[in-house]
């Protein structure tokens, strides 16, 4: 099974400034807990070692929370990486949609065929009952939405990383800006695996999937302190596929971040086992074809 990895990261901490990895004080409440193991360079040669034995034919680089004062610098750097190493195939850049420089940044990305979209993590509430409609920096913030408007004008997609309790706002965004494709990152972050948590996540996913311009990355579903097991993740994977269909779903490693909770082979062998009853065409969608279509990765 060939793979287009729909979500990968590279960084060189000796050359570049990524605050969350370079600053002495770590982020609070990082979803996988202690991430000190990530404070090292991670380049395509490291990725290929992790992915040894798998036929990775392309990959989508997603912004790494690079120095926020220089979003375009990350794209310049990663294009050089791609030229030297053959990975990544395309990139999703950093932008801050509620900043005054957003229109110029997005115009620059739109003029660069290597850049297919952007990611800006909107402000999120810590739990479902704390959601505040229209909060500053959220998907409902008029200033944030004004910046979002420039994505469609520049032919860019939007990688959305947010917990499932904000997917109602995401649906409104998808409806209001139908010319912009939204790619939900990390399966909507179903961290609560209780029956109640899974039920609420499933309902939110169904709401979002009702918009035809939304895709989903099945990734980032590791559980801190536990091995990545088929038994633990089968329901999440199959639910996402059932709701979105294989034509709008894609698999991704989220490496090296998910190396905190799993080996590369655990993740992709797990995806293989979980989808073993699907047709060859459906599996092609999930492992490479949806990513190819969504991000314009030639195979």
TrEMBL record:
Domain of life: Bacteria
Protein name: Amidohydrolase family protein
Chain ranges of the Amidohydrolase-related domain: 4-296
Record family assignment: Belongs to the metallo-dependent hydrolases superfamily.
UniProt xrefs under Pfam families: Amidohydro_2 (PF04909)
Keyword S-adenosyl-L-methionine: no
Coiled coil: none
Keyword Isomerase tagged: no
This protein's UniProt keywords: Hydrolase
Organism in which the protein naturally occurs: Neoaquamicrobium microcysteis
Single GO MF annotation: hydrolase activity
